[in-house]
Amino acid sequence: MLSYEYVKCTDLNQVFQLMDKGEQVYPLAGGTDLMVGMRGGKYAAKMLIDIKGLEELKVLKEDEKGITIGAAVTLNEITLFAPVQKNIPILADGCHSVGSYSIRNRATLAGNICNASPAADTAAPLCCLDASVNIVSSSGTRAVPIGEFFTGPGKTALQKGELVQSIFIPKPYPQAKGVYSKASRTGSVDLATVGVAVQSWGNQVRIAVGAVAPTPVRAVSVEKAVNEKGEKDWANAAKLVHNDISPITDLRGSREYRFHMVEVLVRRGLEQTMEV
Questions:
Q1: Domain 5-50 matches domain 56-170 at the CATH topology level
Q2: Fold classified for 5-50
Q3: What is the pLDDT along the chain (276 residues), one digit of tens a residue?
Q4: 60 has which bridge partners?
Q5: Where are the strands (E) in the chain, listed by range?
Q6: CATH number 1.10.1040.10 given to 178-274
Q7: Domain 56-170 classified CATH 3.30.465.10?
Q8: Predicted TM-score (pTM) of this structure
Q9: For helices 255-274 and 220-227, what crossing angle results, to 10°?
Q10: Phi-psi region of 237 (alpha: psi -120 to 50; beta: other; left: phi over 0)
Q11: Residues 6+ apart with CB under 8 A from 223
């Protein structure tokens, strides 16, 4: 049986004081990854600090600079947020791809990226949108570009005592179509074997892929071919994604299968976004 202390925090100062107590103190928002990890032995928590009721972390707003999504905002709330649906539906698609409806009622965007799974469904769309992660601690705040936030499987740029406060998607938004698609074993409610986000920006494109490298990565070889060299043969362009990835074989798929499927999904994404 798991044994740990539970504290429901009332403000961020209390959070920082408790996080400074030791290495086995974990913030709890949705808990959909944390609790599974605890039961599986990945985390040996001595204390859980409940942050989901903090007003500073429940912010979901759009202003003249862009969209801010607090760390305690659930995936379903993001999916239904009108500015997301209207301006960056690729993020809504990524959020909707995570688990089941009931899971998305608990799970948060911050939790999805802090878990730092290479297969995280929201990571690739965020990479295409130039999102940044706002990090807070007792010593102040800092913003980290989403591409620099992931440092390895299960690892992020967060330092001891730091907490994600929000994720920010800046304006201008892409005035074109974006799609997120994934291949998985069951077709739904499963981790991505391969995840691909393709976002058109007029006659330019941004592409990010997940579950095919230690972290989510941009398909820069494909982007360069399309954006700089004017490649219009989407099949030829998609093959170049092999230059940007280093997939492995695991329970969800072989290395060879991932090489094949990422090429297929990139090609389909280009067809869907660049030919409309």
A1: no
A2: 3.30.43
A3: 578 889 999 999 999 999 887 778 889 898 888 888 888 888 888 889 999 999 999 999 999 999 999 999 999 999 999 999 999 999 999 999 998 889 999 999 999 999 999 999 999 999 999 999 999 999 999 999 999 999 999 999 999 899 999 999 999 999 899 999 998 887 666 788 999 999 999 899 999 999 999 999 999 999 999 999 999 999 999 999 999 999 999 988 999 999 999 999 999 999 999 985
A4: 69
A5: 5-8, 25-28, 47-50, 60-62, 66-70, 132-137, 140-145, 150-152, 155-156, 163-170, 178-183, 194-201, 204-210, 217-218
A6: no
A7: yes
A8: 0.94
A9: 30
A10: alpha
A11: 205, 206, 207
Tell me the two tokens of residue 134: 């706002």
Q: Which residues of 219-247 are buried (b: 16+ CB within 10 A; e: fewer)?
A: bbbbbebbeeeebeebeebbbbbbebbeb
Using CA atoms, how far apart are residues 67 and 106, in angstroms rounded to an integer? 21
Q: Which two tokens stand for residue 98?
A: 């995570």
What residue spans define the domains of the chain? 5-50, 56-170, 178-274
Q: Which residue has the tokens 């280009």?
A: 270
